[in-house]
Each structure stands twice: as structure tokens, then as C-alpha cells.
Design brief:
Elements (H helix, E strand, L loop, with lengths): L1 H26 L2 H33 L5 H18 L3 H12 L6 H4 L20
Helix pairs in contact: 2-3, 3-4
Length: about 130
């Protein structure tokens, strides 16, 4: 098991380098532009994830929910950002796959008031006083 993990950890960067070199032979300097732009996008994702985590956790706590979904969504964004920073085509594909996976919608959005189909409805009687 350790040998397999070591082979994956060492083989992945080698595979990325070989693939980048092959693509650079046909497309030239555009590959360098792709690598630089994807790294810049990864840094932007990491910055966004830092601020979004605080907002998502605060929103979940305000709704009275456990904020694990917010932490998982932010961790997924951080992992995608790290894959974008790592130069290579395969890592960029993995990052885009992580970003395109559907996110969990908070349960507060799906909350229904006793099956009536309206969220956050308050029933009661009222009387207008003059």
C-alpha cells in the first residue's frame, strides 16, 4: 500500500511534466500562458475560499445548523485552488471537476412550513387597530 501511494505521488508530477512538454511541442508559448493563468485562478480561489468559509459558517450557525457542509464546500474550493496552482493539464482537469460538482443546498432553503409549500410562513390571526 505504501509503495502504491509512493508511486502515485511520484508518478503524478512526472506524468504532468511529460504531458505539458508534449502539448508545448505543438502549441508553443500558449501552454505557458495556460499555466500562469491557471495558477492565478488558483490563488484567487484560495483567497475567495478564506472569506467564504467565514460567511458560510456564520450563515449555518445563524440558521441553527451544524456548519460541516460549509467546511466541506470550502475545503473543496481550497483543494481545487491548489490543483490549479500546481502546473499541469491533469491537475487543472481535476480542479475543474471539483468546482463543477454540485454543492449541497443548505436545509434552511428547503425548509417548508408544515407541507404548505411556503418557506418561512407565519400563520396567525391579526386585527387592525385604529
Amino acid at each position: 500500500m505504501r509503495l502504491l501511494l509512493l508511486a502515485i505521488l511520484l508518478g503524478f508530477p512526472v506524468l504532468e511534466i511529460v504531458l505539458l512538454a508534449r502539448i508545448a511541442e505543438t502549441h508553443g508559448w500558449w501552454v505557458l500562458a495556460w499555466v500562469v493563468l491557471s495558477a492565478m485562478a488558483g490563488v484567487a480561489l484560495l483567497k475567495e475560499a478564506r472569506f467564504a468559509l467565514v460567511a458560510r459558517v456564520g450563515s449555518a450557525l445563524a440558521a441553527g445548523q451544524f456548519p460541516i457542509a460549509a467546511v466541506v464546500d470550502s475545503a473543496r474550493t481550497v483543494l481545487a485552488g491548489l490543483f490549479l496552482i500546481f502546473p499541469g493539464i491533469i491537475s487543472d482537469f481535476i480542479a475543474l471537476t471539483l468546482l463543477l460538482l454540485p454543492r449541497r443546498v443548505p436545509e434552511a432553503v428547503h425548509a417548508r412550513d408544515h407541507g404548505r409549500g411556503h418557506a418561512n410562513v407565519v400563520d396567525g390571526q391579526f386585527r387592525r387597530e385604529r
